[in-house]
Amino acid sequence: MFNFSGDGGDFFSRRCVWVNGPVIVGAGPSGLAVGACLREEGVPFVVLEKADCIASLWQKRTYDRLKLHLPKQFCQLPKYPFPDHFPEYPTKKQFIDYLESYAKKFDINPQFNECVQSAKYDEACGLWRVKTVSISGSEVEYICQWLVVATGENAECVVPEIEGLKEFSGEVLHACEYKSGEKFTRKRVLVVGCGNSGMEVSLDLCNHNAKPSMVVRSSVHVLPREFFGTSTFELAILMMKWLPLWLVDKILLILARLILGNTEKYGLKRPSVGPMELKNTQGKTPVLDIGALQKIRAGNVKVVPGIKRFSCDMVELVNGEKLEIDSVVLATGYRSNVPYWLQETEFFSNNGFPTGWKGKAGLYAVGFTRKGLSGASSDAMRISQDIGKVYKEDLKQKKQKVPCHRRCISTF
Ligand SMILES: Cc1cc2nc3c(=O)[nH]c(=O)nc-3n(C[C@H](O)[C@H](O)[C@H](O)COP(=O)(O)OP(=O)(O)OC[C@H]3O[C@@H](n4cnc5c(N)ncnc54)[C@H](O)[C@@H]3O)c2cc1C
Ligand SMILES: NC(=O)C1=CN([C@@H]2O[C@H](COP(=O)(O)OP(=O)(O)OC[C@H]3O[C@@H](n4cnc5c(N)ncnc54)[C@H](OP(=O)(O)O)[C@@H]3O)[C@@H](O)[C@H]2O)C=CC1
Ligand SMILES: O=C(O)C(=O)Cc1c[nH]c2ccccc12
Q1: What are phi and psi of 86, to 5 degrees?
Q2: Which of 25, 46, 57, 158 to mutate to test the pocket of ligand 1 (most atoms within 8 A of CB)?
Q3: Which Gene Ontology BP annotations are present (predicted)?
Q4: Beta carbons within 8 Å of 363's beta carbon, 6+ residues apart
């Protein structure tokens, strides 16, 4: 890394930094995995992170009782397995501790509190210009040959505009702000959404003697987390190697029916597309049940249809029913933030999701394949090998020839 100008000088308002290697945007599991693999390839890099810590989604935007819902072998990052004593489904704390030691082991030291505001490929010099702003308002421009986008599928909360929600007088929070049901004891809470967040928040609310109603406006696939001791995810992955997707889905649904019974009778209508096909085509993750269904069966979680409007202390549903409620948890999902800052529309064309792991002109994406942490690990290995090859070739040529520095003209 090389500074072109002093920090906060009278003349220069923006510092300009040349990075010899890739800039990685995001220090979540994906960014850390790329960093670790690049370290092993001997490629230097810079990681830019808008939060003040690694894995901010896990550290700051998830609830206390969260556990990984896929078995541990699908969630560990490359080149450094989970410790043997970890349970099959590590807790949030165990996962964060693992990520902290991962960053330490591979000597990954992100530039914290630096939010990428824009990134643009400069055709004139054939390099990426990545502009960041810190909380103190100081700006930096990083210039590099490779840009790795690792900002995640869950970068922004989706907060829907629902009629009357602004007039509602109780607390309204997104699932990413929900920590525990402790403060909701005996309260009537409307949980909007029935993905894994909605289901697990409803379960946690029940465990704290709150009274949740969960909105199911369309449909949802609920699967048991395990079938006869084997994880559903593992079974699905195994079957997908040999069988067509439609057949895998059929088998999963037959097994789910066998173990969970008919979930439609509780208001949990199933989508017409099968669970794995839906995940692959639309990114909608099936719910892996860890106990919410039992609470629904027992009537501790009330399943309700879509919302018509809110008023001061009430919600009116599409079926005309009115519920008095104290609080609202919006478990309405997440979206990518890439369209807000990456000035590129070919590779990241689809709502901030890329078309693969490698774009043009040194642009890469890690952790957007809708395959969870295991997808991020495979992306990271591919990307680092790809960059490593070119980096080492460049290095060899530079050693052989008279040094030829790229020139970059910055405009401050
Ligand atoms: C509640 C919850 C539970 C989950 N559980 C599992 C699970 O059990 N198994 C599984 O496989 N997957 C799970 N997932 C999926 C999740 O996507 C992955 O676990 C993982 O966090 C993805 O890592 P990531 O690095 O791609 O994204 P993130 O973890 O979101 O990290 C992205 C980082 O980029 C930073 N960033 C974003 N924008 C900018 C910017 N403009 N400038 C600088 N930095 C920026 C963020 O602050 C963040 O630290 C879960 C997701 C959620 C929400
Ligand atoms: N233990 C774990 O490992 C956990 C993992 N996760 C993961 O995090 C990711 C995000 O999950 P999640 O936060 O549940 O988000 P999802 O996108 O999976 O679910 C969002 C839910 O909100 C509903 N919704 C959105 N807008 C509205 C609205 N205006 N009115 C009513 N309902 C609405 C959606 O309904 P519709 O389908 O009709 O659009 C859907 O049911 C997933 O990949 C999930 O697997 C989450 C929690 C725990
Ligand atoms: O937890 C998530 O969000 C994941 O993306 C993990 C995941 C990837 N593919 C799946 C298929 C079924 C259930 C979870 C996942």
Answers
A1: -65, 140
A2: 57
A3: auxin biosynthetic process
A4: 121, 128, 146, 147, 149, 344, 347
Atom of ligand 2 nearest to the CA of 68: 3
In CATH terms, the fold of domain 157-220+286-334 is: FAD/NAD(P)-binding domain (3.50.50)
Among protein residues, the one whose CA lies closest to atom 32 of ligand 2:
193
Tens of pLDDT, residues 292-321: 999 999 999 999 999 999 999 999 999 999
Q: What are the tens digits of pLDDT across the range 229-260?
A: 999 999 999 999 999 999 999 999 999 999 99
Strands 127-134 and 139-144: antiparallel
Q: Do domains 2-155+336-409 and 157-220+286-334 have the same CATH topology?
A: yes
What ipTM is given for this predicted complex?
A: 0.98
CB 328 within 8 A of CB 171: yes
Domain coordinates of the chain in residue numbers? 2-155+336-409, 157-220+286-334
The CA 368 to ligand 1 mean position distance, Å, reads 10
In CATH terms, the fold of domain 2-155+336-409 is FAD/NAD(P)-binding domain (3.50.50)
Ligand 1 in reach of 201 Cβ (< 6 A): no
Model-level pTM? 0.95
Distance CA 233, CA 235 (A): 5
Closest ligand relative to 371 C-alpha: 3
